[in-house]
């Protein structure tokens, strides 16, 4: 089994200049993620879980360590040293990210958001339209909302749309940041079904959770994080 992602000695800290504080978010983290695996990271809020995902996705620059990713386009690449252009390509075509928060362009409807994600992959407009309707139906997003602006959505509706937008691209690597945090039980089941489907199609996943019980039978390995280090 080929290694898709290998994190070595990852450390990240933040300087809060206005408070004169230096905060160590994560220290000396090592993770190896093989193709097709689903690894879960658990821990309390503020333990550093989300920082790891943001470092992989390029939202944070790290102070120490390396994040080696086996890209289809670039081969073995250290994401910690990748250019902005390379990261933009990888986010569009290879690495998906599901956050608890939905950041969208104003005046963009739910349908347009999902369609844009598919069109970025180079697919046709007719294919994008068909797949958009399929996934919005899967997540039971009310059809009356499809052509509405997500700013008017409830927290749960925004999260379902966010998950749909990331998963519809069927990325090689999918980063999940508390993907079921504010969802009801039925919506969680929908997420779980889609995760199972993506795993069967070869997507590799790294997810963070407060409680892994819901994903128990899907996760290959679990890491527990406390105060920025794995316990």
From TrEMBL:
One of its GO terms (molecular function) is ATP hydrolysis activity. One of its GO terms (cellular component) is plasma membrane. Residues 5-231 form the ABC transporter domain. It holds the Pfam family ABC_tran. Gene3D superfamilies: P-loop containing nucleotide triphosphate hydrolases (3.40.50.300). Keywords: ATP-binding, Nucleotide-binding. InterPro entries: AAA+_ATPase, ABC_transporter-like_ATP-bd, ABC_transpr_LolD-like, P-loop_NTPase. PANTHER family: IMPORT ATP-BINDING PROTEIN. This is ATP-binding cassette domain-containing protein. It comes from Robertmurraya kyonggiensis. The lineage of its organism: Bacteria, Bacillati, Bacillota, Bacilli, Bacillales.
